[in-house]
Amino acid sequence: MAVKPTKSEKKVAYDTKLCQLLDEYTQILVVAADNVGSNQLQNIRKGLRGDSVVLMGKNTMMKRSVRIHAENTGNQAFLNLIPLLVGNVGLIFTKGDLKEVSEEVAKYKVGAPARVGLVAPIDVVVPPGNTGLDPSQTSFFQVLNIPTKINKGTVEIITPVELIKKGDKVGSSEAALLAKLGIRPFSYGLIVLSVYDNGSVFSPEVLDLTEDDLIEKFAIGVSMVTSLSLALSYPTLASAPHMFINAYKNVLAIAVATEYSFPQAEKVKEYLEDPSKFAVAVAPVAAAHSSAGPAAVSKVEEKKEEPAEESDDDMGFSLFD
């Protein structure tokens, strides 16, 4: 008969396993496990098997193991996990793509009934229609102020009713009514709360960002740095091109207003002194139109007169003359 390990032996084994996972994996998802059953958790483990490991445990044990491991290895980045270990949470160690793993975890949600005392995670609305209940059950609907009518010997709800609001606790009447109607309004599963990646901790919403979103945010950041640098007259890689252009404009303005000149300003000064030099390409076209004007008009008039003469000849000499 196998001897069951003692509590101290279990703690040592758990500490060894957690430290081994911390050494092997650099990506960790911190997940909430409220209302998640053992069978559901087992299915999640099977779905993630291959490149991910799910580890549950008491927060005090996890925090203690993380602290000791950080001291032994000198890697203080592990300490960023400690503030995240609050509430009923677990850790998913993974070598796969973080977004794909979080999406895989979200697939294993199971519908659950509204139990008395639970805080509703969503609004619960009872839809209109025939409930299939006999008229003796109308007391449930009257207590909850749900308008009903008797139709063909059964109770029918007339209009949709918001039975429970998000954040409210489920009462005994609401729970009993939903159970009678066969409605399981809530769904529970592992919910990703935070992401740990090589010492950095960030929100899971970051995983939904596309490459275009990152480029847009980067461009906004560069724009802000540029504006701040220009306002402070502090040169940076972002503001240097603008500073050079502004300096060129200032020097060019001085050169235009004075006799001073430099190679980059000569063409501008030449244009300001005689703009007609830069209209060479336009002048021949305009001259061609002006010189050929009278001749072209006379030719057009001749072409317009020719059809008129032919029509006169036709009128004067017919086939019968």
Automatic annotation (TrEMBL):
SUPFAM superfamilies: Ribosomal protein L10-like. Pfam families: Ribosomal_60s (PF00428), Ribosomal_L10 (PF00466), RL10P_insert (PF17777). This is 60S acidic ribosomal protein P0. Belongs to the universal ribosomal protein uL10 family. Keywords: Ribonucleoprotein, Ribosomal protein. P0 forms a pentameric complex by interaction with dimers of P1 and P2. The gene is LOC108991896. GO terms for molecular function: large ribosomal subunit rRNA binding; structural constituent of ribosome. One of its GO terms (biological process) is ribosome biogenesis. One of its GO terms (cellular component) is cytosolic large ribosomal subunit. Gene3D superfamilies: 3.30.70.1730, 3.90.105.20. Residues 289-321 are annotated as: Disordered.
